[in-house]
Design a protein that fits this description.
Elements: H1 4-21, H2 39-47, E1 54-55, E2 58-59, E3 63-64, E4 69-77, E5 84-91, E6 94-103, E7 109-115, E8 120-128, E9 131-132, E10 136-140
Parallel strand pairs: 3-10
Antiparallel strand pairs: 1-4, 2-4, 4-7, 5-6, 5-8, 8-9, 8-10
Length: about 140
């Protein structure tokens, strides 16, 4: 009988390996892992939507002189306080981040002091926290 025991152990071991490789579940039908999701679970997953972050942008002036100080202010929603926001300018066909950074306050507001030297219409926006504001145009004379 001792000759059969090692053979039986090897056979059971091979069957377990084959079952695992084939992806067979070795769980009882009533276990939590084998149970299909209920209708309530599916409905909860479908309705659990995460609100998208957003940010607004408003300029204190529509026209400024070169290097004249003005402010970009706005409000955020679904962005954590302390999140960094960056001012971007549309230049040469793409958006360029400027060295103007601020953070979101506990109320969701932000304020940024800006000076621009490029004359003409400057398209600006605020980005951060997964959100992008609409474009604000400030003309520099």
């Amino acid at each position: 009988m001792s000759a059969r025991t090692p053979l039986r152990a090897r056979t059971l071991g091979a069957a377990a390996v084959i079952a695992a490789l084939a992806g067979a579940a070795l769980l009882p039908a009533g276990s939590a892992f084998a149970a299909a999701p209920t209708d309530a679970t599916a409905k909860a997953a479908a309705t659990a939507k995460v609100a998208a972050p957003s940010v607004t942008a408003h300029s204190s002036r529509s026209t400024v002189g070169a290097w004249q100080l003005f402010q970009i202010t706005g409000q955020t929603s679904h962005i954590k306080a302390g999140t960094q926001l960056t001012l971007q300018q549309f230049r040469g066909g793409h958006w360029v981040s400027l060295p103007a950074v601020t953070t979101v306050t506990r109320s969701g507001a932000y304020s940024l002091r800006v000076e621009l030297g490029i004359k003409g219409a400057n398209q600006l926006r605020i980005v951060g926290g997964g959100a992008v504001s609409t474009t604000v145009t400030v003309s520099v004379r």
